[in-house]
Design brief:
Helices cover 40% and strands 12% of the residues. It is α/β, with parallel strands linked by helices. The chain folds into 3 domains: 81 residues, Winged helix-like DNA-binding domain superfamily/Winged helix DNA-binding domain (Arc Repressor Mutant, subunit A, Orthogonal Bundle), CATH 1.10.10.10; 135 residues, Aspartate Aminotransferase, domain 1 (Alpha-Beta Complex), CATH 3.90.1150.10; 230 residues, Aspartate Aminotransferase, domain 2, CATH 3.40.640. The strands form 4 sheets. The chain has a 7-stranded mixed sheet, sandwiched between helices. Helix 3 crosses helix 4, helix 8 runs parallel beside helix 9 and helix 15 crosses helix 16.
Length: 495
């Protein structure tokens, strides 16, 4: 049954009351209705002219809004059939679309036109986890290290000694802000506590930055592929995307002065690459020259297999336009909801005021624990990298043995490898993989332009036994996905 025009108008509400182009505002409201399930999968939407007449806008506004949603994989438009909500937008429990990727949180990358849903399964699988499925959709440590419990015990003991402190710290606990500032000073970046905002994880940091720096219709420059949680934060701010396939293209795009640039130069998610120092210097200079705020996501930065963490981009610039986001979710554990933003003091002041409206500050015990943990980054890094390198090598070995036609580039750090399939569509294959008991994220989720439909992201966070089981399931799924050819016979298709 289609979406009745009058009923849809009522649901849209005051859709045009925001700032920005009308087609962006209309797409943002329709996106919310789709994502919230108010517009069900396969629901026909009103024709362009009919909806435009009811909304008192030009037909071009509706066409542009529908086209934008189609690029994101939320609607399908076909000549003679009209516009419909994508049939796979919100799969039922147990058959959820496992074809999308996630990092620290949020929903979504964008799919190509008519490419089906690319909603981030981090939300789908956290809110409604499928049973008896190995979740390779979320790249996060599977258990807290013993040092975390020790840090919490010490933090709890300190509670009894706290005096003259009501516990509300919108900018973060003063001791933690100083410890994070010291951490950056040790990495060659002069930093004061006034340049630090403590957040409830990196995802809140990205959301705050999107709310502060973006208006509807603004352009965000990102790498392709990149972290889907960031894409969703920017999408919630009704931003548009421009993608760059590499550092040279990213630098060239900065000359067009997008509203914001976002990148992951160290232990990139999902590829595991590390940007060379000269490229970092060049991008930092371009951001300053063209007055573009450049957000560097350093969440996985301490996971370089070499054991040495490169300086952040702020080391190469004056720091006024470079913003650094970090957290302990990858180095320690995702359940420790402590992240931060390092930026110029005036930017931090604005972010603190914005954060205080929604959140008077994070819980203190976790921040006190994080204060101790950050002071022991060297120990944490050493222990974590030793485990990750061993599991990384094991995963690559299993893929080479069982799926030799898949192209898997070794990572230089991080928690994931970026795999290219020799043929077919990664989203369709992910559906088959789910039926074999393993959920894998497909490449379109990592690319707001809908590209990389032949890629998968595979994390190497589980133990060797689970990794072996996962690859075995993927190999069986690959045989079922293309039963006429065995995985070992597709070598010639790899480029």
């Amino acid at each position: 049954m289609g979406a009745n025009n009058d009923e849809l108008i009522a649901r849209l509400g005051r859709w045009s009351s925001g700032r920005g182009p009308l087609y962006v505002l209309l797409a943002a409201r329709l996106r919310a209705l789709i994502d919230d399930g108010e517009l069900r999968p396969d629901t026909p939407l009103p024709p362009d002219r009919e909806l435009a007449r009811s909304l008192a806008v030009g037909r071009g506004t509706v066409v542009a809004a529908y086209d934008l949603l189609q690029q994101e994989g939320r609607v399908v438009r076909r000549q003679g059939s009209g516009t419909r909500v994508c049939a796979a937008q919100h799969p039922p429990p147990g058959t959820a679309d496992a074809n999308d990727g996630g990092g620290a949180g949020g929903a979504g990358g964008a799919g190509g036109a008519g490419g089906g849903t690319t909603a981030n399964p981090l939300l789908l699988h956290l809110l409604d986890p499928p049973e008896s499925v190995i979740l390779l959709s979320c790249a996060a440590p599977e258990e807290p290290p013993p040092i975390l419990a020790e840090a919490y015990l010490e933090a709890v003991a300190r509670l009894g000694r706290i005096r003259h402190d009501i516990g509300y710290h919108p900018a973060g606990h003063p001791e933690l802000r100083e410890e994070i500032a010291s951490y950056y000073r040790a990495r060659g970046v002069p930093t004061s506590p006034g340049q630090i905002l403590v957040t409830n994880g990196a995802q809140q940091a990205l959301t705050l930055l999107a709310n502060l720096l973006l208006s509807p219709g603004d352009t965000v420059l990102t790498e392709a592929p990149t972290y889907p949680g960031a894409l969703e934060s920017f999408r919630e701010a009704a931003a548009l995307f421009r993608t760059a396939a590499g550092a040279e293209e990213f630098g060239a795009a900065l000359t067009d002065r997008p509203a914001l640039g976002y990148l992951i130069p160290t232990c990139h998610n999902p590829t595991g690459t590390i940007m060379p120092p000269l490229v970092r210097r060049r991008l930092a200079a371009l951001a300053g020259e063209h007055d573009v705020p450049l957000v560097e996501d350093e969440v996985p930065a301490e996971l370089c297999f070499s054991g040495e963490t490169p300086p952040p981009l702020a080391h190469y610039g004056d720091g006024r336009r470079i913003i650094t986001v970090g957290s302990l979710s990858k180095l320690v554990w995702g359940g420790l909801r402590v992240g931060w933003i390092r930026a110029a003091a005036p930017v931090i002041s604005r972010l603190v005021r914005l954060r205080a409206v929604h959140d008077l500050g994070g819980e203190i015990v976790g921040q006190l624990a994080a204060t101790r943990l950050i002071s022991q980054v060297d120990r944490l890094r050493r222990d974590r990298i030793a485990v990750l390198r061993r599991r990384h090598d094991h995963l690559l070995g299993e893929l080479a043995a069982r799926l030799p036609s898949w192209r898997a580039e070794p990572a230089l750090g991080g928690q994931t490898i970026w795999v290219r399939l020799p043929g077919g569509d990664a989203g369709a294959f992910a559906q088959v993989a789910l039926r074999h008991g393993v959920a894998v994220p497909q490449g379109r989720s990592f690319d707001p332009s809908g590209g990389h439909g032949d890629h998968l992201r595979l994390p190497f966070l589980s133990g060797e036994e689970t990794l072996t089981e996962s690859v075995s399931a993927l190999a069986a799924a690959w045989r079922d996905y293309d039963g006429t050819r065995r995985p070992g016979t597709l070598q010639a298709l790899v480029v």
